Inverse folding.
């Protein structure tokens, strides 16, 4: 039995290239199909906005594709693992490698190394591309695919209480004193917390004393009347800093930005368990690609002519998809405080790493 972790250089390159080519092919197929289906559902909304046409459809595709790539890359690695290992098994290449003295771990080593490379690329892609496109697409969808300066620092669904009153906005763009609110609603309530007045404006600017509503419309509940009002300052106690931390989308921020958001929320005394779990998952998520060769390894071994190859492939697929289910469930439980953030993000990874290793050792080593 050879003691080297990797097989020969030529065999390592052969298996690695075989695996990566299948990952790219499966991912391209999944993204193409899912993007077509998604575009069919969204094209009506996009083209329904005044002034939108074919260019906006392509803009939507450019913003949506990175999300699909990030979400379905681990699934593609799982399917590519099964395709690669089943093919090697059917062609008796696994038997040849084992006859040459290679262990199951040595056969899987090139696949694990390739998966680690894919995980690194996935992490960098998520940090540099997916976060920015997610922020832009979220903001664009919030204005119902209307005009939007692509690339702005934006936040959506602003909702802040000041005493008994409430400031709400569809969109906040810019930072600090340059923050601009879009789709603004200011709710004034009486001491019994019943709504007394509602102010609506397309835009609000920070003046240093409060938020200046541009051409607002006031609705009085008591008289059920609506009137146009001059520019008016409201929400004097709500600062741009509160706006910045009021709504944090972890998928639209990279690790550095999310760390600063968590620190700001903690300084304000707000709960951050969900965001902390998402922070850890930004690392553990891409690394899940490394689990797929281990979970799908059961498809590589055993005689193809025994008639159990299909069953082994199904078992490998079941293990992989079970991991994704448990991973999502752990994050959900962590969001409710059932798990610490670190455990919610990493427990499924380590659990299924042990399961995959146990199955491999039990059946092949």
């Amino acid at each position: 039995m050879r003691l080297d972790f990797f097989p020969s250089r030529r065999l390592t390159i052969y298996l690695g290239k075989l695996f990566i080519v299948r990952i790219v092919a499966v991912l391209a197929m999944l993204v193409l199909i899912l993007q077509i289906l998604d575009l069919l559902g969204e094209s009506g909304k996009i083209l329904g906005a005044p002034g939108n046409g074919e260019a906006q459809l392509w803009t939507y595709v450019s913003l949506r594709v990175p999300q699909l790539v990030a979400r379905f890359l681990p699934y593609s690695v799982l399917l590519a693992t099964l395709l690669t290992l089943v093919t090697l098994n059917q062609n008796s290449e696994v038997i040849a490698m084992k006859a040459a003295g290679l262990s199951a771990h040595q056969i899987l080593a090139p696949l694990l190394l390739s998966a680690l490379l894919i995980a690194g690329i996935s992490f960098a892609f998520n940090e540099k591309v997916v976060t920015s496109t997610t922020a832009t697409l979220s903001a664009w969808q919030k204005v119902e695919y209307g005009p939007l300066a692509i690339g702005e620092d934006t936040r959506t669904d602003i909702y802040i209480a000041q005493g008994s009153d409430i400031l709400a906005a569809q969109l906040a763009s810019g930072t600090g004193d340059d923050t601009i609110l879009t789709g603004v609603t200011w709710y004034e309530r009486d001491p019994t917390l019943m709504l007394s007045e509602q102010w609506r404006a397309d835009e609000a600017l920070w003046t240093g004393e409060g938020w200046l509503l541009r051409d607002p419309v006031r609705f009085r509940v008591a008289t059920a009347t609506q009137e146009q009002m001059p520019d008016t300052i409201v929400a004097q106690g709500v600062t741009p800093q509160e706006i910045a931390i009021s709504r944090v989308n972890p998928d639209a921020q990279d690790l550095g930005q999310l760390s600063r958001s968590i620190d700001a929320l903690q300084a304000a005394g707000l709960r951050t368990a969900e965001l902390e779990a998402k922070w850890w998952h930004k690392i553990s998520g891409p690394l899940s690609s490394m689990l797929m060769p281990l979970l799908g390894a059961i498809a590589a071994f055993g005689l193809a002519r025994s008639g159990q190859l299909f069953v082994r492939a199904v078992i490998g697929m079941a293990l992989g998809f079970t991991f994704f289910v448990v991973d999502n469930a752990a994050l959900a439980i962590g969001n409710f405080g059932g798990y610490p953030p670190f455990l919610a993000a990493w427990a499924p990874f380590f659990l299924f790493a042990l399961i995959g290793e146990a199955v491999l050792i039990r059946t092949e080593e």
